[in-house]
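Amino Acid Chain and Its Fold in Token Form
===========================================
What this section holds: a protein sequence and its matching fold, both as plain text.
Structure line: whole-number tokens from a learned vocabulary of local backbone shapes, matched to residues.
Purpose: to set a sequence beside its fold so the mapping can be learned.
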Amino acid sequence: MIKQDFLGTTNKLFNKALKYTDISEDLATRIRVCNSTYTINFGVKLRNKIHTFTGWRSVHSEHFEPAKGGIRYDINSNQDEVEALAALMTYKCAIIEVPYGGSKGALKINPKDWTKPEIEKITRRFAQELIKRDLINPAQNVPAPDVGTGENEMAWIADEYRRIFPTDINALACVTGKPIQKGGLVGRSEATGRGVQYIIREFFRHEEDFIKAQKYKNENKIFSHKTSHKFDSDVIVVDKKNIIKKIFKKKSNKKILSNISISGIFFLKKNFLYTKKIKIDLAHLILKQLNKTKFYSYFSNEKFSDYGTHDRYNKLKKNFKLSQKKIAIVFDRDGTIISEKKFVNSPRKLKVFKKFYKLVKKINKKNIILICITNQSGIAKGFISEKKLEKIHSKLNSIIYKKTGTFIDRYYYCPHYPISGYKKEIKKLKIICKCRKPKPGLFLKAINDFNLDKKNIYNIGNTKSDMYAGYRAGIKKNFLLSENKKNISYKKKYIELSYENLISKLK
């Protein structure tokens, strides 16, 4: 049964999506409501008795015509449901850029209570009432099958329309989903199921989505957090899928550029813990198995404190504070951290802005999470490999660390580029993805990976793509560097300032 607050839920989701657009509130109010909704009551003589039926046809938007949307037969249907479904039809068509307005219809009936000839008689009467009001018309409003309806109902509706308007050469186009012999399209009846098939196929095509949906189900997981004393902690290095690639034991390498530490909380497969040893060091054991078994890092912003003595315990009690979401700063790379005058395909070409050093020095002791999100279309074009790019980022971190005493906690990069025409391009990366800025995919992944509060994120960049991606991800503090800015041409959802003013603002 459809919940009675379906329309309210639809509007709530619309309002949520509204935050990521430039639509004004007055226009939003206009979009939110349906243009018109007709309630139709009609009688049909069946079984020696006149039965009254109630139906609806709602037109949400006619910004494109015809308005498109199915007719369902359901005893639980109501006006709110029909209006909600009509609105969703508009949004769906608009999002995928199909030139239709949104409409929806319903008849309050349980099809199982009636025979096929009776359903035909009811359908034809319903169609007559809708046709009279131009709520079925090839140029204005085109119904389709929905819950409880199919090819037969559409054929009866088309037949009624042609009977009323015998000279209309487009009469058969008044509905979709007709039988093939009645002018229907091959594959129409399977279209909905095929759409689900495509969605599932696309989902499993991207391993990161699958992993996220599974939440690392039945996999080894290590609880991790940002440490303030990396040289006295077991620290880890993770890849873009949150798989642990390296573990560095405490004090093993003072140059290791990672602040992500093992918290001491492990979720491991039972068979992994099988050992003849009575006493084990889990980190050491995991280190030995790292090349044989996958281990996922689950990052938390919660505050971790350990105590092994009474003195430490008493100190912890005295200074204990409830944990809070950490502040994070998201930087673009080219034009924000480093100069973009030359394409960087080698660590030797790295030229870091002195003003960036100055900013990082100011926030070094604040235990702020530093993230870099960058479009790297050169990978798809064949100009540079992912392995080479990671080496460049490692070198960049070394340079930043020498100058400031800290570094970027995580680099996120989009390797895709949809336009072809490059000699050494990588075909599998020539796609329209969700991670290339101005799309917010990498921002949302970073927020998820680090459990960030969007209210405590600062997004810093020099292009409209940087600003818009942050805004679409729900980040409110977006800062455009005025000295390096380019390609800014949309309604402001950011603050424009210099690096000096930014440093002052982030104090």
Summary: The mean pLDDT is 84. The chain is about 35% helix and 20% strand. The chain has three domains: 6-196, 212-319, 328-505.
